[in-house]
Amino acid sequence: MQYDPVKSSLGEIFNRTVFLRKLFYRLLDLLLLRSWHIRKELKALKREGFAPKEILDAGSGFGQYVFFLARLFPGSRITGLDIKKEQIEDCNHFFEQTGFAERVGFHVGNLTVYRKEEAYDLILSVDVMEHIEEDTAVFKNFYKNLVPGGILLISTPSDQGGSDVRHDHDTSFIDEHVRDGYGTAEIRQKLSASGFSDIKIHYSYGDPGKLSWRLSMKYPVQMVNISKFFLLLLPVYYLLTFPLSWFLNCLDVRQNHETGTGLIIKCVK
Question: The pTM is what?
Fold first, then answer.
């Protein structure tokens, strides 16, 4: 399933004005369950008194998490790093228009080689590691790039059906994924080998989240892959399905899941 072309099509629509871009971020926050889980973790850190001076969004994409971080931690400087030049240019242009440019900047970079030792208090990586073959190199760089006591927060698919893979003969729902998901023991071992010792892992996308994901992501992406005509129908589709997805997302972030198709990992250096 080609996911990047769908993202590009949506980006073209919502990049036309600052208002539409902010609306796009808001819609992503509402629809993407991973955003619910990440925002919950970040808000909990702030309630605990965590006030990062330097933040890295490792794989910043559209920049929606940088936008959230810039408002949540008004005293921080934030770097967005992504391998796609066009997205970096687009994000820098948007943030210049919103008044955040003095403390927010986006740069082209490859996480497997990006090294800025002891520069960041917080590194965020949301649904990025499943796209990178050399994940151990990235984890080692994350460790080196954090200050002592710094925090790494990761969201990634699990091996319990992440990427919509449940059986050996299944293929990933997203063609751009290089792995279908991590097992908890596997990713803990890789993070430990990179230097981390304080590692907390829990499942996201339990039963409520899996249903919500199909309604809010899988089925719409499948429709748009058939024809871009379905982009015109998406507002009606979400008008009908969003109330149920919202309720399911609320359930998912409030429950402790014994298993799930996503992982949320927090590491302290």
Answer: 0.90
- Region 95-112: what's the mean pLDDT? 94
38: number of Cβ within 10 Å: 24
The structure tokens 């992440």 sit at 162
Alpha helices in the chain (DSSP H): 4-14, 18-31, 33-47, 64-72, 85-97, 135-145, 184-193, 207-213, 219-226, 234-254
Is position 159 within any domain? Answer: yes
Other Cβ atoms within 10 Å of 168 Cβ, number: 5
More confident residue, 176 or 125: 125
Report the percentage of the chain scoring pLDDT > 70.
90
Supply the range of the domain harboring residue 69: 31-206+258-268
Q: Collapse the DSSP code of 182 into the 3-class scheme (helix H, G, I; strand E, B; otherwise coil) and give the result.
A: strand
Q: 3-26 burial, b if ≥16 CB within 10 A, otherwise e?
A: beebeeebbeebeeeeeebeebbe
The rounded percent of the chain whose pLDDT value lies above 90 is: 74
CATH number of the domain within which 169 lies: 3.40.50.150
Task: Count the domains in the chain.
Answer: 1
